[in-house]
Design a protein that fits this description.
The protein is α/β, with parallel strands linked by helices. It has a single domain, classed as 4-Layer Sandwich (Metallo-beta-lactamase, Chain A). Helices cover about 20% and strands about 30% of the residues. The protein has six helices and 15 strands. The protein has a seven-stranded mixed β-sheet with strand order 1-2-3-4-5-6-7, covered by helices on one side. It has a six-stranded mixed β-sheet with strand order 8-9-10-11-14-15.
């Protein structure tokens, strides 16, 4: 795997000096404060799944990216402000283990891609497609469909008007490569094509990547390795 731990700061990013994106199950969350959005990253469960609470600074509205178990950890993370949306990046069990309990406890609506709807334990309140926008308070997140890890895998992009982009990529892009396609050549080709065309061709090197497991990275650390990933086939 290519190296990929990200460090750095952007204008108005008051959490950049302490935010590093390295979290462990049972350990403290990491908080990054942008001018319009607060990002809280926590790791949960035996597979060390990352979940991200995105809170609009002007309204207090919050959105959760993925819902691993235990739900109680995420309910505590959300606190008193309203959890408006839970967005599922894909339907693998380790990313949705806390979904039912979270919906029951918070009343949050659930969004995801229709191609990944069937395995979910709750119905989708909103299905999204590539290019759609999800609002959390006054903040807009763009939906990026990345086919391959699952048919309906998505990423979310927040394009900070005061700095760089922030990409929540689920299990489709990590430091060192794209998501697992279990030797399925067609699925790998679809995923590497989408990641190249919809991520690397759109966002610059400073775009920050928040994956579904493990450490964060930035696109500039990963871009030189795209040809290597394609050649090796995973």
């Amino acid at each position: 795997m290519a190296s990929g731990t990200a460090t750095g700061r952007q204008p108005g990013d008051s959490g950049a000096m302490t935010y590093h994106g390295r979290v462990q199950p049972g350990g403290p969350a990491q908080v990054r404060e942008l001018p319009r959005l607060i990002i809280t990253k926590a790791a949960l469960g035996p597979m060390s799944n990352n979940a991200y609470l995105l809170r609009c600074r002007s309204t207090g509205a919050a959105l959760l990216v993925d819902a691993p178990a235990p739900a109680a950890t995420l309910i505590s993370l959300a606190g008193k402000d309203p959890l408006t949306w839970i967005v599922i990046t894909h339907s693998h069990p380790d990313h949705i283990g806390g979904l039912s309990a979270l919906v029951q406890a918070t009343g949050a609506q659930v969004s995801g891609h229709a191609a990944d709807a069937d395995p979910l334990p709750v119905r989708l309140d909103r299905t999204v497609a590539h290019g759609d926008v999800i609002e959390v308070g006054a903040v807009e997140l763009s939906v990026i469909h990345l086919r391959g890890h699952t048919p309906g895998s998505i990423a979310l992009a927040y394009d900070d008007p005061t700095g760089h982009a922030h990409l929540f990529t689920g299990d489709s892009l990590f430091p060192g490569g794209v998501g697992n396609t279990w030797g399925d050549t067609a699925a790998f080709n679809a995923l590497i094509d989408d990641v190249e065309q919809r991520i690397f061709a759109v966002f610059d090197d400073e775009a920050w990547v928040y994956p579904g497991h493990g450490d964060d990275t930035v696109l500039g650390l990963q871009r030189p390795h795209l040809a290597q990933w394609r050649e090796r086939g995973w």
